[in-house]
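In keeping with the milestone schedule agreed at the kick-off meeting, the structural modelling team has produced records for the first pair of proteins. Each record is given below as a sequence line and a structure-token line. The laboratory manager (R.T.) confirmed that both were archived under the project's standard naming scheme.
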Amino acid sequence: MLYIRLSILLILSVQMMKVYPRQCGNEDEEISRIFGDRKEVYFRFNVFSEKDIHFLTRIISIDRVSGGHVVYAYADPLEFGEFLDYGAEYALLVPPGLMVQPEMRPSVNLRALTEWDFYPTYEAYLDMMNQFAQDYPDLCEVFSIGQSIQGREFTLEISEDKMPLASQLPNFWEYNYRSFLNYIEQTGFGIRGAVTDSVTGQPLIAEVYIEDHEKDSSWIYSTAATGIYFRPVYAGIWDVTFSAPGFFSKNISWHPDDQQDGYFA
């Protein structure tokens, strides 16, 4: 298998993030004031470009993006502290999960149940499982396999019904094995290389982004230990951008020759 191997040399410079200025005091005090006893906050802020979103998704948990520049996100105290380092103005919001108070039922009559428009309490849930076992002893058995640190029973469903039948497996293999083998083969083709610091030679965690191609967080990152990356992609002409915090980004246009199988490596 052929590979195009490339070490990208990135030059130390200013931060790439464009953010709004934020006036605040001690960061630890701000985090303590915001979180209190909470483990997570929900907030909104603005970005200037899609690149900012790509980078920030490595720090915080992005919920959605509205209008291309308004970002809604979740963060725990550590993540929020990293977010504050970028100086963006933000607005704290009520988490969506707290905007609706679901009905919690302490008991459930399974025989009379017609709609699941509620949540059972933990105790009601245990009663439901035991009721299933009582009503369908040939199908259901309840036994304990351990408890969580909160003292709640683990839930595990084990079924003896195997689908498809063992006698049908040869036919399923005959129907699908060509696609399986082809899929395994094609996963070995793509762009491979390593990203390093041009001054120190140390490996970097860098975003590897194919312009006008990536969708729904499909871009990748080089590894911290070695800086190596591998990106499966079809043959063609691709503009690939390598970026890392504190470094100038670098764009390379790839013009690989098509391999016989229609992919390149």
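The second protein of the pair:
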Amino acid sequence: MNNRASSYNSFIFTHIPKCAGTSFRKYIYNISVLNGIEKKKIYIPGTFDIPNNKNISQLSKEECNALAKRSVKVLADHSKYKEHLQHKITIEKPFYYTILREPVNRFISHYNFFYFKDGNKKFKNKSLNEIKEDDLKEVLNQLANLQMNYLANIKFFRSFGLENVLKVAKYNLQHEYACFGILEKMEASVDLLKENLPKWLSSKETSFPIVNSNKQGTTDIDPKIIELIKEYNQYDIELYKFALLIFEDVLHQKSKELPASITPPKLN
């Protein structure tokens, strides 16, 4: 984590799918309004009549140009790290924030929401235990290591080498993100965020309700399928372990009333 609270002029939330991002968008929207930030300077799809399908990556060139003129101060959408710059949208000195989730559970939640619930006839109303192995591998190829890809944002990541993409994702999480949360440790994550937010975005919110929560656990799924999910998401699993090391160290130092600077784990 890289916290220089007094030096941030804006806030960007990297919303990785199925990592409590919908809840967090509502949370940061409420905080922004309570702090008197102008409507035109807040861009959070799903609020202020902005459709959910208007993430920066989904905008037309004209829409991006219009957004660039609004001097956005708070951005929360499904944009990868620094994706706004690729669309020529300048956001000054951002406080980057994201939430990570245990990768197997994230994949299961993603499948259940976007494939089981809303997918085509090959997947709709079919659990992971019911789909063919080839179809499962198709989904895994689409969704594998999604958290790493969001934090690294390397366009041709396979040709770049997944080990190298992982190094970039780790570096960005540790050095470019001012703070981050862990879904499985949400209460501690929110407390840590409140302590580190810039003063102009100070949090008066006391609760953080989780919406769109997925109730299915890994015990409901064939162990062979779980192992296949782990195999395909090995880099997300490594990233998540890395994030937990940093997060737990920060909490440990906080419990000893020490500054939240940490001795970084080595990037392998």
